[in-house]
Structure formats: structure tokens, C-alpha cells
Amino acid sequence: YDDRDGKIWMDGTLVDWRAAKVHILSHALHYASSVFEGERCYNGKIFKSRQHSERMLRSGKFIDFDIPYTIDEIEAAKQAALDANGLKDAYVRAVAWRGAGEDMGVASSRNPVHMAVAVWEWGNYYGDAKTKGAKLDIAKWKRPSPECAPSQAKAAGLYMIATMSKHAAEAKGCSDAMMYDYRGYIAEATGANIFFVKNGEVHTPTPDAFLNGITRQTVIGMLRDKGITVIERHIMPEELDGFEQCWLTGTAAEVTPVGQIGEKKFEVGKLVTDLAADYEKLVRA
Ligand code: PMP
Predict the structure, then answer these.
(1) How high is the pLDDT of residue 150?
(2) pLDDT (tens digit per residue) in 196-250
(3) Residues with Cβ within 6 A of ligand 1?
(4) Residues 48, 78, 154, 166: which is the catalytic one?
(5) Is 154 known to be catalytic?
(6) Interaxial angle between packed helices 214-225 and 270-284, expressed in degrees from 0 to 180 and rounded to the nearest 10
(7) Cα–Cα 20 to 30 A to 230, which of 34, 99, 165, 248?
(8) How many Å apart are CA 188 and CA 212, to the nearest integer?
(9) pLDDT one-digit tens code per residue, 264-281
């Protein structure tokens, strides 16, 4: 992704894509002092843009830094990046991190916080699984307790276990991994939330040890508006067998049906295909 034409918004200016670099002694590279957002722009409008910007500021606070921009400035930065690259349908990656500076130890409060926004065209995160249904592995890594990590932050450090889990899944021919939380409840995938259907009702894990995704919240609202019961609760792995349909939600994943988790198979049924179509309509409305 580094060798492309285009512009990246970085610390207030638009720089050439290939020149958007950081110093090797950036604190973030050594100690994961970085937070980010993943957003999608549809027909020239970023879906729930302000909510994403707000979450990014919140994520920064969770890991002890203030991003030196206001919501309005972040909104303008995202628009500037889209305009500079002439994109109306794009994935938007905003990132903020502790740079290099006075500190090289664990503490970093004297190092400046930087921010950048890159945008590019990105199709469905799971490729043809979007229609066929994704196959998920079950990760050996568990989502940490909120006492061990700030679960609600979209912070780079939390993705170490996600990357390892996804690598292991891909090595087995799966699209992604479903992760348990520290108690052994079903949590989510490595970068998307999870939902199940049983007897026409929707069940989804309580987001008390993982990111309560903006897509997740949107989809829960859409289902309830249609009169479908959505139950947020702790879900045990033994319950998988009793579920009929399953899907993932996320900005990148949108609504992606799941066809298999481990040995358990799910139908790509009407509820999930309708929901995926409704979501597509909503984000483009
Ligand atoms: N969980 C994790 C770990 C994620 O990385 C994402 C993607 N941001 C999500 C859930 C879904 O969040 P959202 O719907 O806000 O994109």
C-alpha cells in the first residue's frame, strides 16, 4: 500500500502518498501508542462520519493522548483526503499516533501526537464470502478482560491478537477467526462483530469485552425497526449448534454472512441476505 499515486492528509497538509512516512523511533511503533478508524464513504458521503471521529478522539483518551484536532477539523481532513484523491466511494483510514521526540521509554507524554488520513478504493473485506458465506476458524487467542485492556478503544495494541488469530485462520483456508472472550463467551471476529439467528430471533454477544461497532449498533436498530427481536447476551460456544444463520458486521465487512464456524455450518438465509441488502440501501441513501 505504500507505493501508489495519490495524496495522504498528514498533520494538516496533503503529502504525496509515497512520502507519507514516520520516523523509526516513533513511540507508536515500539509501544503501540496508536488509535485508528475505519470508515466508508458511499456516493460522496462518509457513513456516520462524526460518530467515527468522536470514537477516534475517545480511543485516544483511553490510551492517554489527546489528538490535537477537533471533530470539525477531523471531518475536514477526511474530506480533504477524499477530494485530493478524487474518490466518492472509498474506505477511509484515519490514524493518530505518538511520534518520536523527547521520550524513548514506555512513557511518552512529551512526544507529539500525529494524525493522518488515507483513503482508497476497497471492495468487500471478505471477497466472495459476501454472497457465499464466510468460513471462520475458532481462534486460540481470547479477547482480554476490560480490566486488562481498554476494550472500547480502537487501539492498535488490541489488534496484535487479532492479526495472529487471522493468520492462523487463513493458514487453514478460513476467511477469519471467531474469538472468545476471557470468560470463554463468544466475542467477535478479528475486525467485525457477530450475530446469530435462532427461531427468527437474533442473538448477539454483549459488547462488554470488545468493540461495540458502529455497524453493529446500526444493524441492531434496523432489525428492531423491522420488528425483529434482538437479544444481547452472553453466548456460550456450546450454543453454536442451535443457531441457523450467522453474520458479521463492520465498516469494512458491512453485513457478511457466515457459512461455517469450525465444523458447524449455517445457511445463508433470508434474514441475513435481506439485512445485507437493507444495509447497502441505508449507507447509500
Ligand atoms: N470489532 C473490531 C475488533 C473491529 O476492528 C471492528 C472494525 N472497526 C468492528 C468490531 C466493527 O466496528 P465498526 O462497525 O464500527 O466498523
Answers:
(1) 96
(2) 999 999 999 999 999 999 999 999 999 999 999 999 999 999 999 999 999 999 9
(3) 38, 154, 188, 191-193, 210-211, 213-216, 249-251
(4) 154
(5) yes
(6) 110
(7) 165
(8) 10
(9) 999 999 999 999 999 999
Is there a common fold for 7-120 and 129-284? no
Q: Is the dihedral of CA 217, 223, 227, 232 positive or negative?
A: negative
**Residue 254 alpha carbon to ligand 1 centre in Å:** 10
Measured in angstroms, how far is the CA atom of residue 190 from the centroid of ligand 1?
A: 8
Strand partners, 193: 249
Domain ranges of the chain: 7-120, 129-284
In whole angstroms, what is the distance from residue 259 CA to residue 93 CA?
A: 28
Residues 6+ apart with CB under 8 A from 228: 200, 201, 202, 271
Separation between Cα atoms, residue 133 and residue 67, nearest integer Å: 38
Q: What is the CATH T-level fold of the domain 129-284, as seen in this structure?
A: D-amino Acid Aminotransferase; Chain A, domain 2 (3.20.10)
Ligand 1, atom 4, residue with closest C-alpha: 191
What atom in ligand 1 is closest to the CA of residue 193? 10
Q: Is the pLDDT of residue 131 over 90?
A: no
Q: What is the SS3 assignment for 285?
A: coil
Strands (E), the chain: 7-10, 13-16, 34-42, 45-46, 90-98, 113-120, 134-138, 176-180, 186-189, 193-198, 201-205, 230-233, 245-250, 254-261, 264-265
Compute CA 230 distance to the chain's CA centroid, rounded to the nearest angstrom: 21
CATH among 3.40.640.10, 3.30.470.10, 1.10.760.10, 3.40.50.150 for 7-120: 3.30.470.10
Contact 38, 249 (CB under 8 A): no
